[in-house]
Structures are given as structure tokens and as C-alpha cells.
Design brief:
The protein is α+β, with helices and mostly antiparallel strands. It has 7 helices and 18 strands. The chain has helices at about 1-10, 15-25, 35-45, 60-65, 80-100, 110-115, 150-160, and strands at about 115-125, 130-140, 140-145, 150, 160-165, 170, 175-180, 180-190, 195-200, 200-205, 210, 215-220, 220-225, 240-250, 255-265, 265-270, 275-280, 295-305. The strands form 5 sheets. Strands 3, 9, 13, 14, 15, 16, 17 and 18 form an 8-stranded mixed beta sheet that branches. Strands 2-1-8-5 form a 4-stranded antiparallel beta sheet, with no helix packed on it. A two-stranded parallel sheet has the order 4-12. Helix 3 runs antiparallel to helix 4.
């Protein structure tokens, strides 16, 4: 189940887990929300981790289906859509609760502090050389994948320069007219937890349907970003891989999700209620295929990297 795989991955993102448990401790009598249900679930895992058996997230899923009608069915769901909804919805809950407190109506939430980074879009007019920058926040980065490449290469392509020309010219305020320009996206502020979504599902006109792109993409245990802006606050930040949500199957409308996580120096694989210890070298099995991209495969889909200097 995709809900299990994403929740298991998030649980092993230590800053997130600790904030959820802290919320549980501080809000014992709060009304039921998706966040309170998640806090109860995490608390149950922490307090019952030495006991035999598994904990089914029934209360959480029941609440989720009330909050988001798209998840209230038995159709194949997308793990990235679920993650995106969950993080944003939790953030909205926290903001709403902050709004009830007069002392901090607009302070950043702990979701912002953990997941939020800043992208800057830089557009250089090729006529006057003026650079126009525009910032935007993100909770995760969705990146295109190519065959036999790496996460670092995918991130470089994400920030590659695009030429705006012909019908797509840039309106330069300095020139006061439309001009050819170079545009690129770079990371201005790196988050504590970097969530990377590999765009493995795309529509192909040749087949007239969405297919799974099972290209081999290497994701290292350690990661440093090289697509940062010149004014980035922490450009040399080093990340460690802590969790991966994996899609198993041949297409977007069929398959299964599992997760691999790092806990106390060991790597574990979660397949719903089955948990096994794996060797770090086994992670290579989830890079993808070097052959036909439509074959059934087990491929990394969402990667969670935790900064070494993240406040726990």
C-alpha cells in the first residue's frame, strides 16, 4: 500500500518524526485532524516497537479518506501525490492552529523548517544582459530522469539553461520589449530534508497512454548539490540518504509500493507488514533498468535525504 510506504519513509526522517511526536505531547486534547491521527500512529509505533505484531494505520487512513475524496477508493494511487497532499495539509493545520494564537500569527511552521527550500528562477536578457530573479518555495523537487545517469546529473539538467526565443521571448523591463533570453532554475536555500521525486511516469504519444520510465538512475548514500545559486545560504550542505519509496511494477496504473529506510546504522526494507534487514549494496537493485523502460521493475521513486547539520 502506498500509504504505508510513504508513512514508513517519513517516520525514519528523524526531524519529522520528532516534531510529530512533540506535537502529540503538546496537543493531547486537540480535535481529530490528519496530523493528530499521524501523531497517534507514530506514538503507537514508538511505544510498541518491542512488541510482536504490526500497527495498521486504520484511523489515519479513515481520516485521510474524509479529507481527500480522491483517496477514498481502491484505485491505484500515486505516492508522490499522497506525499505532496500530506505535507501541505499538515502545514495548513499548523498554520490554522497558529492563527488561534495571538503571539505568533505568521511564524514559519516546523514543516517549513524541515522540508522547505527556495528555488530561484534567473532570466538573463541577451540584449542588455540584465538578470531578473524570482524566488519560489518548494517542499520537494520533481526531476526528469534519463537512462544510465545519476541524481546529481538529473539535478544539473533540472538547472540547465533554457533559451527563450521566437514566440517564447522574455519581456525585459529594462529594454521595455520582448527579447531573447537565457533562463535557468537553481536552488537558493537547501532544506533540512531534501525530498526528490523522480518523474518516472509520463505520457507517450506513441502508445497514447502513460508509461513507467524504468531508466537506471543512481542515487548515492551521500549527496551534495551542485545546482545552487551564487547567493545560496548553505551551498556546501551534505546530505545522507535516509529513506526511499520504491515503485514495483510496469506502469502507473498497476504495481505496488515498498520502502527502504536507514535505522540505527542499518538498512531495512518494508513491504507492508513484512520487514527485513538488507545489505547497503542491495540498494543498487532499485536504481532501475538498463534495458526496456516498460518492463516491470522495482525503481526508486521518492528519495529522502537528510542534511548532516539538520537540527534534530
Amino acid at each position: 500500500m502506498l500509504f504505508n510506504s510513504v508513512l514508513q519513509a517519513l517516520y525514519f526522517c528523524k526531524p519529522f518524526r520528532e516534531k510529530v511526536l512533540e506535537y502529540k505531547a503538546k496537543n493531547k486534547r486537540s480535535k481529530e485532524t490528519l496530523l493528530s491521527c499521524l501523531a497517534d500512529l507514530f506514538y503507537s509505533i514508538v511505544t510498541q516497537k518491542r512488541k510482536v505484531g504490526t500497527i495498521a494505520p486504520k484511523k489515519f487512513i479513515a481520516r485521510l479518506r474524509k479529507e481527500k475524496v480522491e483517496f477514498d477508493n481502491y484505485m491505484q494511487q500515486d505516492a508522490h501525490e499522497f506525499l505532496n497532499f500530506l505535507i501541505n495539509h499538515i502545514n495548513e493545520i499548523i498554520i490554522g492552529e497558529q492563527g488561534n494564537k495571538k503571539d505568533c500569527p505568521s511564524s514559519p511552521t516546523w514543516i517549513n523548517e524541515i522540508f522547505q527550500g527556495i528555488l530561484t528562477s534567473e532570466t538573463r536578457c541577451l540584449n542588455c544582459e540584465t538578470v531578473t530573479s524570482k524566488d519560489e518555495d518548494f517542499f520537494d523537487l520533481s526531476i526528469d530522469v534519463d537512462q544510465n545517469t545519476s541524481i546529481t546529473s538529473c539535478l544539473r539538467n533540472f538547472s540547465s539553461t533554457e533559451t527563450l526565443c521566437s514566440d517564447n521571448k522574455f519581456k525585459c523591463d529594462t529594454c521595455r520589449s520582448y527579447q531573447e533570453a537565457h533562463k535557468r532554475m537553481r536552488v537558493k536555500r537547501l532544506p533540512n530534508i531534501l525530498a526528490l521525486h523522480l518523474k518516472r511516469f509520463k505520457f507517450v504519444e506513441q502508445y497514447n497512454r502513460h508509461i513507467k520510465v524504468s531508466h537506471r538512475v543512481v542515487f548515492p548514500l551521500e549527496l551534495r548539490l551542485f545546482n545552487t545559486s551564487d547567493d545560496a545560504v548553505n551551498p556546501d550542505r551534505l546530505y545522507d540518504l535516509v529513506a526511499v519509496v520504491i515503485h514495483c511494477g510496469s506502469g502507473p496504473n498497476r504495481g505496488h509500493y515498498i520502502s527502504i529506510v536507514k535505522s540505527h546504522g542499518f538498512w531495512l526494507i518494508f513491504d507492508d507488514d513484512v520487514v527485513d534487514k538488507i545489505d547497503p549494496a542491495t540498494i543498487e537493485d532499485f536504481y532501475g533498468l538498463t534495458t526496456d523502460i516498460q518492463k516491470s521493475s522495482e525503481t526508486g521513486y521518492i528519495l529522502f535525504y537528510q542534511s548532516r547539520d539538520a537540527v534534530s
